[in-house]
Amino acid sequence: MFIKASVALCCAAFVSSGASAFELAKYPQVFSGPQGLEVALAPSRDGKEALVRVTGVNHPIDAVVLLTQREQRGNGSEAFVTPLDGRPYALVQKQRSAYGGDQTLAYLPGQRDGIALSYDEKKSKALQPAALLATYEQQNREGVQNLLARFDKDKSIAQAKAALQRKDETASESCGSQVKTTVDWSSISEQQFKTLSIAGYCGEVAVQLGAMCNATPAFKTKAADLGQISCRFGPELKLRAEGRQLVFTTQEDAPNQGDFVQQVLRNQ
Predict the structure, then answer these.
(1) What is the pLDDT of residue 3?
(2) Interatomic CA distance for residues 108 and 102, integer angstroms
(3) CA–CA gap between residue 221 and residue 206 (Å, rounded)
(4) CB within 8 A of 82, min separation 6: which ones?
(5) pTM for the whole thing?
(6) For residue 170, what pLDDT is reported?
(7) How far apart are CA 65 and CA 5, in angstroms?
């Protein structure tokens, strides 16, 4: 969401968000994490949005002030969501801890698990919402947030290739022969890139090959002839052998794809 703002010099900063104006709350929060990670969170007075700044990470979001939407989740948890790489991304989440009380987690791009944060009272008192807003405005004029929000297909393909390579390497180790997955990237829509784990779908054959090699050592001989995998997205779930290659068509709504793949592999 685009913001044009004027900075109040006393207790609160006033922001115009679309057609309506809102105030940043008087008291922001700063949280600290491991290895210098720090998250500053300045909520709006109505609690619907917040400015979030993450520092201490080797990622382009470092020190960028992002506008987030506050979303209520199940079990009393909430997430602060901002557009990154063309999709909504829950950068900070607050939830009930298993040991009682609240827990704040940072979910950094490229990392699956959340990082536990602790409230820093001293830094929270020192942080001025108006200063955070001023940084946001300057970066917004420079197009920093828009650049982070924009979908980058080349980066998505590179990330999927890296994840598929890890799955292939695991399967190759289990089977004692090379497993390699290639993808018809042109068969994947932009929306699928944004919303699906491409490696999760196209890596299913390699995962099942590895699992069957581990479960049945005799299957390794067969796997040696089926290690070349070609994957594409299509309207119907299919898997067939063409010579020494497995041709896999995955479908985003098809259930139990792992079971389907195993059934086909057993019949080869």
Answers:
(1) 37
(2) 19
(3) 15
(4) 52, 66, 67, 68, 69, 88, 89, 91, 149
(5) 0.67
(6) 97
(7) 14
Enter the tokens of residue 77: 């948890």
What residues does each domain of the chain span? 3-149, 153-266
**Joined tokens for residue 64:** 């960028």
Query: Taking Cα atoms as reference points, which of 246, 251, 243, 242 lies closest to residue 262?
Result: 246
Percent composition of the chain: helix, strand, coil (DSSP 3-state, to 5):
35, 35, 30
* Residue 123 burial class via C-beta count within 10 angstroms: exposed 0-12, middle 13-18, buried 19 and up: middle
Q: Which pair of tokens denotes residue 229?
A: 């995998």
CA atoms of 219 and 1, how far apart (whole Å):
54
Amino acid type, 24: L
76 in Cβ contact with 66 (< 8 Å): no
Integer Cα distance of 27 and 244 in angstroms: 64
Gap between the Cα atoms of 64 and 138, Å rounded: 10
The pLDDT value given to residue 102: 84
Local structure of residue 25 (DSSP, 8 states): P
pLDDT at 198: 95
Mean pLDDT by 10 residues, the chain (268 residues): 34 39 86 97 95 96 97 90 93 82 89 92 96 94 95 92 97 97 97 92 97 95 95 97 94 96 92
